[in-house]
Amino acid sequence: MKIKILYLLIIGCFIISVGASVAAQEKGAIKGRVVDAQTGEGLAEASVSIPGTGWATGSGERGDFAFEAMPPGVYRIAVRLFGYGGVSGQRIEVRSGETTEVTVALDVQPIVFEELIVTAEREALYPQFTITDEEIGERHPKDIGEFLRSTPGMAAIKKGGTALDIVYRGFRMDQLNVQIDGGVQVFGGCPNRMDPPTSHVQAEDLEKIEIIKGPHAVRYGASFGGLINLAMKRPRQSEDLVVHTRLESGYESNGSGKRARAVAFGSNRRFDFFASGGSKDYGDYSDGEGNEIESGFQVRDYSIKLGWKPDAGQRLQISGRQAFVRDALYPALPMDADVDDTGILALDYSRRFRGGMLRSLSAKAYVSAVDHVMSNQRKPTFAKMHAETDADTRTTGGRVELGMKLLDGNLFAGGDYRDLGMEGFRTREMMMGEMKGKIFEDIIWPDAHSRKVGLFGQFDRPLAPETALSLGLRFDFFEMTADNPETSFADMYGGDLDRSDVNPSVTASVTRGLMEGLELNLAAGLSRREPSITERYLYLLPVGLDAYDYLGNPEVDPEQNLQFDVGVDFLGERSFLSGGLFYAKLTDYISGRVEPGLKSRSPGVLGVKRFVNISSAAKFGGELEAGFRPVRDLLVRGQVAYTRGENGDSDQPLPEIPPLEGKLAARYDDARDRFWVELSERLVARQERIAVAFGETETPGFAVAGLAAGAKVGEYIRLTGGIDNLFDETYYEHLNRRHKIDGLSLSEAGRSFYLLVKLVK
Predict the structure, then answer these.
(1) Are 344 and 199 in contact (CB under 8 A)?
(2) Does domain 27-106 have CATH number 3.40.50.300?
(3) Does the pLDDT value for residue 25 go beyond 70?
(4) Is residue 710 a contact partner of residue 676, using CB atoms and an 8 Å limit?
(5) What is this structure's pTM?
(6) 420 has pLDDT over 70
(7) How far apart are CA 705 and CA 693, in angstroms?
(8) What is the pLDDT of residue 19?
């Protein structure tokens, strides 16, 4: 079913008219107090919010807080305070004309910086949003990238059935800073990114996904187009030993997808632990017309966290995880992944200080490794040539940060380090013709290293009761080397392949409450991104969206983003609205340019493109979300997002920019929290703005609907199920890559039924 632009105009009209919703029932209120769980003492400066509504406040000197004029309904409250374990999801019911009183007790827990949002007076001083584990669990994602692209404003490059590569506001690959637990980084071994950073952890282990828009977060590395933090689950703190377990099993009809997982976690006053392990086994799926798409994969993984608290102000944690992917099929790539093994080991320490200027100390050290083996043994080309690539990446790093009380504000200052090493080889054995039996060995990654030392400082300060300011400054010192390049590559650049750069980042943002229920955020940021190892040292491999061999360029300069964001949040009696606009002025933007004089080495390509800088480019657009409650337990909401990219040098569109899209959903939550039901439809417009120079073609719009539901059965059983692609539409996303056999974009899965059963204790 093809979508017309009219459908998206309907969404716009819906959003504009949300404010017309008027409450018929008498309003209620919540009054509460945040206290120390051990002493009962009131805790000031705690961040208190109701996720998904826009309601947020801070606790007063005695820990008191209040939300007035609230429509009757069931809400979930979240409370955070630096140095204490947070509370998320505590259920509160507001009745008509009544005031609900609540006490929230927090346990002392030094922050390990797995969560990025650590501020006192306000929870968000720069443009950002958070996706909770509850939202993730309801969507049963087999892959984090697949899950995120259902959020307007986000998209993903698809090459197979798993490991989709995230795109946010048109920024992609190394333009996005993807981290695990607020500091750990993992880099895949495949030049075609069949194993992007988000593919190395499983969605079931996520506590939340935090997304900071644009170059506005200097504490966690240079964030050129945005920062995505995958915060993994950890145990809740308690005084006496409490152990919880969870078993889950699920099935998805299209692709015969099977999954299973076991989780155990517990804690007492001194120790805590979290352990999980699971498996996924998916076959090929069929699109809406019954065409089978090669997309199967298998994955086994486990994750462990062990924590020790020598006293109330300190915490030491060691965490490790491994994932083992086998036989992952990628019909849009010349090879499939036979093996993709990931290992991560991290050590965290944090300490909280009472009184004085110094408030906190945190330190993190980690190592991550990816062993990636891929071949063409399942491809038609295998009859002519046997090809296998073995590529490894190793990343070591760490960070130290001090939190200080200064000039009535909070100063976070510190440094970080990262060393990324990549080495890989490809073997090709000719099986036909005069060259039968001849073996070629190619260097994929030339034992290259990208080393970075960063120094940063961020100062957050309230300027008035309804205004807060955030200032950030960062310097990154880079060194890149290639110790084992192809001889012809080294000769091309005179043998001098080492590069060093100093990249500054600076940001400033102001958040101000304009009136009751209305808040405005303004942010400006400047950031420089160091070219990746691919962009500087790749030697003649087809890694773009087009059919060209790409050549690295050690002389390519860092690209720069000067970005402005404006955001608004409004909360009415029965409605809410949240939106943001951005403009990014890009200089020295890295792209590909055809080099007619260079000879390609990959079969079937059109020629060679070299990575170069283009002097001027721009991206701009925004997102808007709105919702209202016509009755207490029913929420109707809509979202819309648009990004436009311009190449200033050629006056043409930038490649891989997703089209205008929107989403409509209606959700019913039982007042007694026994079940929920949601009907949704995703609407995507035709993309006519294409980069012809990169082989893009126009893609049709589509509309795809889904039905989901969940229920509690007794005390321990939780059921989640539904239907994806309810009307069995045949469609594909603009960023889906093309099948290597027929040259057509990969179609998405047709109708699929799914069921997930959880046993929770």
Answers:
(1) no
(2) no
(3) no
(4) yes
(5) 0.87
(6) yes
(7) 34
(8) 42
